[in-house]
Amino acid sequence: MFQRRNKRVWHHNMREFVWPQMGWRRATRYIGHRVARLPGSPYSIAGGFACGAAISFTPFVGLHFVLSALLAWAIRANILASAIGTAVGNPWTFPFIWFWIYQVGCFLTGRDPNQVLDVELTIEFLWEHALDIFVPMLIGSIPTALIVWLGFYWPLKYLVAAYQRRRVERRSAQQPDNMDAGTEKEMD
Q1: Which contiguous run of DSSP H or E holds residue 26?
Q2: How many CB atoms lie within 10 A of CB 2?
Q3: Closest CA to 134 of 49, 59, 46, 28
Q4: What DSSP character marks residue 90?
Q5: DSSP string, 26-89
Q6: pLDDT digits (tens, 9 = 90+) for 50-100
């Protein structure tokens, strides 16, 4: 019923994912409306989205949906909002995220971050030195994920609460007051 008349081929879907045809501003506003209209309390929605965003700052690529859903379930947040929150980590942001968590992990462990980055990064090198890269990224992702969770949760909680309040006010203003109309008929 709600399907496209002309199905898009897979490469059009990929292009739309990387560069939305409607533009980034409109796509962001659309996602904002979708998140705010999710069923649940402002805590649930904001907590779920923050879980997805925080898990995006971990090196567990491929497990972000599962890990964010588990974290959202554990704190009784909205699981669908957590799936939407994982969009914070995307092909545009992953290189910056990985570089950041690697640098933070090296700082926390006392390693020289340039030790691994000075060599030519090839698949063979990454495979041979996977732990030398993964461990600092994992350690750096923990404080970063906590800060990201708080950074998304607090503003979103208030934004979702205000959006839901305005939406209820708009709906109540649009509905005719049936009680007054019924009492007027009885009085005539």
Answers
A1: helix 24-36
A2: 3
A3: 59
A4: S
A5: HHHHHHHHHHHTSSS-HHHHHHHHHHHHHHTTSS-TT-HHHHHHHHHHHTT--HHHHHHHGGGS
A6: 999 999 999 998 999 999 999 999 999 999 999 999 989 988 899 999 999
DSSP annotation of 21 reads T
Question: Which DSSP string do the residues of 105-162 spell out, in sequence order?
Answer: HHHHHT--THHHHTS---HHHHHHTHHHHHHHHHHHHHHHHHHHHHHHHHHHHHHHHH
Other beta carbons less than 10 A from residue 117's beta carbon: 13
Which tokens go with 86?
């994982």
User: Each residue of 172-186: pLDDT tens digit?
Assistant: 888 776 555 555 545
For the chain, how many helices (H) and strands (E)? Answer: 10, 0
Instruction: Extract long-range pairs of 144-148: CB within 8 Å, 24+ residues apart.
Output: 144/57, 144/100, 144/101, 144/104, 145/54, 145/55, 145/57, 145/58, 146/54, 148/50, 148/53, 148/54, 148/56, 148/57, 148/88
φ, ψ dihedrals at 165, nearest 5°: -65, -45
